[in-house]
Fold this protein.
Amino acid sequence: MSLRIVQVDAFTSIPFTGNPAAVCVLPAPADEKWMQSVAAEMNLSETAFLHREDGGFRLRWFTPTVEVDLCGHATLASAHVLWEEEHLGRGERARFLSKSGTLTADWRDGLIELDFPASPTAAVDAPPELAAGLGVEFTFVGKTAFDYLVEVASEEVVRAVRPDMTALARIKTRGIIVTARATTPTYDFVSRFFGPRAGVPEDPVTGSAHCALGPYWQSRLGKDAFFAHQASRRGGDLRVTVAGDRVKLGGQAVTVLRGELI
């Protein structure tokens, strides 16, 4: 039996920008090795697999090399596919069962809004590979449950980082978030995300990283709602709202490709 697979650009309304994710809605649970092989074949930062379970959808995310516990852009892409292909009505909430607990997505004010757990950041000493890998000075280094978070002096520094991926891959973490307060009008903060250890040298737009960036910039800027930009080559925009121990991520998505796994 063939299976439909869809490629979606997330956190954008413009094809070939934002962060691409593959989404495969399954009739039943699939073998983990097969899912990892499909993700390697798709060779995108994330491939999402879903099947119906307990009134919602079991959701798993795979990079080309590993399964991860949380992924924002592939969750947004999954919600987009569920509504676009009428697995759910547009007014219905998408409910996902995942390794990071229950996640939801709603269609609100022209955006898909994800409800994710906040990821607090604790200050830590920087491992030596971090300075070698990024080649810039830090104003803050912290650690979340998943990643290192590094603040630098300016948006210009964020955009100019040319990382040494070999050095960064030696750090035992999912990835490294580099961020600064924005100088570009309309944005509150900017960021980039590097995850060579997880098989993703630079992720174009990282929803889960904003579960840490939202609370971090809440403490710095003294407000709860932000408009953020991830300054990768493809780029992407996110509406970020901190609500207690949850973070709401808003963005758009566009389908760019549909195919069959045969």
Observations:
- The domain at 122-244 is CATH 3.10.310.10 (Diaminopimelate Epimerase; Chain A, domain 1).
- The radius of gyration is 17 Å.
- The CA atoms of residues 24 and 238 lie 24 Å apart.
- The longest strand covers residues 253-261.
